[in-house]
Structure of DUF4407 domain-containing protein:
Amino acid sequence: MTETPAPNEAGLRSARELETHVGWLESITGTALGVLSVASGIYTYLGVSSLLDESGALSVFAAIAYSVAVSVGIFVFWSYLMRLMPAVRTRQARMGLLGAMGLGSLAIVAMSSWLNAAALAGSAAVEQHLARTVQDYQQSLERAHEVTLSAQALGRDVARTRQSFEDLSEQEAAGSLSGLAGRGAVFRVLRQKSEELAALERLIASQDVPVAEAFAEGNAILSRMRALTVERGPVEARSVAFSEAAVELQGRITQLRQLSVAPLVDRAAADLAASVVLPELDGATEATRSDQAATITSVLDVLAARAATLERAAEEVLAEAPGTEVTYTPISSADAVILYARNFVPSWAGAIAIDLLPAVLVLILMVTQAAIRQGREGRRVEDSLTLAELRAAVTALREVEETMPQAEPQGEPKIGPHPAGKVKPFTPQSGSGA
């Protein structure tokens, strides 16, 4: 039967096994850490290059210098922690190094990770910014068109008011209002206001074609801007064309707002009742002229009421929100990645992981070294020697003995080898003293 090792013996064997694994892993840890540092430096170089405006040799050298500094800093930082963190034993020292690791990790994210994210998803983030801007411009264009169409709808109110005055004038011509048939003073007042409203109605109707053309041109520009967001090629060149289209589109939106006739209708409604040219009463008798004056007064009251209604309709259109003012601002890939970080979580995770992955290795080494120390706890040094270490110790001891000079004591006979070549073993006599 196989004997079950004691708990201390099992812990010692586990510690030796872990030490063997750690020794093998340390042979590849430096290479792996160097590869991670170089990869982070490359992406950092790409991110820095996107931030520099110039493309000369000095800019390239500056980007290379920054990326090399980042790579060296990452390699040295994690090398320090991999060596020192597992070796400390006190809680205070561990908390101090953990705090240093957290502070260093924040520094790495600040100087490298966001640039890595810009290199990984910079172009996509800029395209996201372009697409979001297109949506904002589309909403602004549609809102401006909607408000302008609401103002155009005031033409129906103007037409209804004009028609009412024309009907009243026809009634006056037939003698139904003042009692005098013909085209006298009352008829001329009614015709005067109906002609003013007819001119305003024609002006509103003339705006239909420019409004439709401005809206169609705005939609055509929007289609071109949408194509630029998904078009192949460098995003910087597309951003320049996008900016030009945005300026042109903003001009169409402004044109739509200026085509709104609501302010004109509002002023016309205010002047409708205030600017009345009263004709000379042409009745033959005083009673007739009195009837004409009373009829004109009634017509003015009706005119004021219709003007107030038309003015309220125009003010309702003016009170409508014109839409958000949109201005396209070109943005760098690094700024776009930060602005739309929620849309690029995988890229951010990869950019941070490539820099902070060694932190996991540090924690693994901490746990492993703690297990090794626990397995060796309470054992003497000679108990923990392996066979190879024991052989090495014996060999070293023999070498030391061979190099040490052997002093011979004076006055004592030298003991030579037995003539027969063998030494007779000493056998103690019974009864003799020890």
User: Anything to note?
Assistant: Residues 418-434 have pLDDT under 50 and may be disordered. The CA atoms of residues 125 and 296 lie 70 Å apart. The chain is about 75% helix and 0% strand. The longest helix spans residues 91-152.
